[in-house]
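If you are new to this repository, start here. Below is one unmodified record pulled from the training split, so you can see the exact layout before writing a loader.
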Amino acid sequence: MGLTYPIVFYICIGIVAAGLIVLLFLIKGKKYTGGSRSANNDYVKKLSQYKTLILEYHFLRAGAIIGMILALIGASVLVAKPAVVKSEVTELHNRDIIIGFDVSTSLDSVSVQMCEQLQDFVSNLKGERFGIVIFNGQAVKLVPLTDDYGYVISELEHLKKSIEAGRNAMFYSDLDELSAYRFAGTSSDRGSSLIGDGLASCLYSFNDFEENPDRARLIVLVTDNDVLGDEIVTVPKACELCAFKKVKVFGIAPFFVEKEEEFKRSIESTGGKYFNTRNNDAIEDAIEAVKDTDVSVSYKTTTIKKDLPETFIILITLGTLLFGVTVWRLRL
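And here is the target side for that same chain:
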């Protein structure tokens, strides 16, 4: 424990000490002038009752002095603001992760499993930033990079429910507000499943390459690579851009993926890995691969200051009570 303002404590103690010294000198030099004088009182002083009263008087006077000193010390410490200062060191993983979801209906089963697995993964993050981009005909940044893991988990749950609701609809016109959630902003007249554009959008969701060059960055791309429209950026070109920016891409595709070998080569050219759901553990393996990627570690020191007035409030209360009771008794 320490004092926030120790100089205040020293000033208060100095004033109290000076006051007590002055008081002692005044008491010592003052003669009693009131009351009636008496002679031949030696007999009285020998009485046991008199001795008891004198002893009680000395105890009460000492109690009054002690109570006053305790109250003054407690008040001095309280004014100086007693507090305890603790330093906590938190390990932070300097890694940014963007999940790119192809929200076309052909990926529904994979996307639902991915959402479920990612919720568990996100709940164990420490310092990483996490973001979500959904795309079809065009991309929407669903969650910008953030370390608010509760928000990320809630959005993953919302996306999962939207996909599940859409799977139960017979026609697009049957979609309610929940099932239409994933299509809001992702539809385009240029076509659907524009994978390269979606991957490029994921890449440029990292917005601090120059400010934080040492952060590890990676993209998890969930798609069947079935392009139905005119892409601005192809998947191989988007992967080249990712490799140039030192962003690893981890691809997860269903067994019916289009142009698998080309897609796999493009993904692996970034330093990432490719996974296919024909392996039942593909999603779990992809999550583990993401966990095992290089991550720079930093340590954040947080100083916590907690005021501790309780003990000294009790001291002031007890000292004041002791002083009040003894003074009241001395006046009898």
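Two things worth knowing about this chain: The chain has ten helices and ten strands. Residues 22 and 28 are 10 Å apart (CA to CA).
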